[in-house]
């Protein structure tokens, strides 16, 4: 019993250590590493890669229909002992005879069970059990197959564009959440510093109240402000945890992993890079949405050709090899040639206007694709102008909020220092602490606005972010 108890304790300890190791697993990632990790593990990215592979297989399936098709078969026949009889007996037709034409003229043929003639020989030709092994190679080519291969090539290109677009969006999402986490961590640090100052002021104020040098209401105001800032910090920490969970989903990582982000915010938030982005021209042909529209136009044009292919002939050819083997003692009568070739051409003539209607319908679809592309082209140019305005506005607001945060922090530090020596009231300190919380919130919004506007413009211009 003691040995079993010791074994059980060791097993439980090992399980606990494994669980602790699992829970404490840390994933340290720079921004570039996080983006690369997401490209390998993100579910949407994996599906996009699978769609690319599936498009390649579909193209091969269409192409393979134009290649020779080879099949083999084996056929077994047993005539249950019947014989084949030629001609007639005694100048009269045998029962169940049929007439076939031969170079020597009409000849009656009948089938019967084996019989013995007067000289002791069995009459007719024995039809022994036989087996036939055959190999057939065939090929058929139509205009629709050729155009179908072209359509599959376009489909492959569209799938690849979609995959690259998904890759771009995955990188953008990771960067957006990555920056959000860094900003939230920075905010928590600023709020913790402000809270420490407020708690010190509250303690000093309460000490002044205890010795009769200040009123209790002043100390209570500071205590309320301390509680308010603690609530703000807790709310920010909860938002930070939600962002971390979102990052794990973007990465496709285990939800129990602890994230450590190693790239500082200063390396990511580059005002100079964002400003230079405004000076870049818009090459619409590099945009993924426009590239998809171009491929869609090609697809519609090929569909017109596909509809016309219903008027083209179909060519087919085949070769067959057959080897027949008899299993009886006699060879039997073999009428199957070992080699056979054939070819055919078929041309559609009349289908009551169905093909003409299909061609006209395909032309309408092509015109609609052209109209959609033209409208989207104008829309993308308008979007470029709007995103440029958004980024310029975001940069201006970021500059203002960054300076405002610095000023607000210096005002708060100045007032707290004055309050220690009785040169500032508790109301001024309370207002200053409220101002710094507001300034920090505005700063967060400004940073995220710059990042979001920059990512949106980079995606539109197809610039790696």
Question: Could you please describe the fold and organization of this structure?
Answer:
With 465 residues, the chain is α+β, with helices and mostly antiparallel strands. It has two domains: 27-66 and 144-310 and 352-461, Outer membrane efflux proteins (OEP), CATH 1.20.1600; 70-141 and 313-346, no CATH class. The chain is 63% helix and 15% strand. The protein has ten helices and ten strands. The strands form three sheets. Strands 2-7-9-10 form a four-stranded antiparallel sheet. The protein has a four-stranded antiparallel sheet with strand order 4-5-3-6, with no helix packed on it. It has a two-stranded parallel sheet with strand order 1-8. A hairpin with a 2-residue loop joins strand 4 (98-102) and strand 5 (105-112). The protein starts with a helix and ends with a helix.
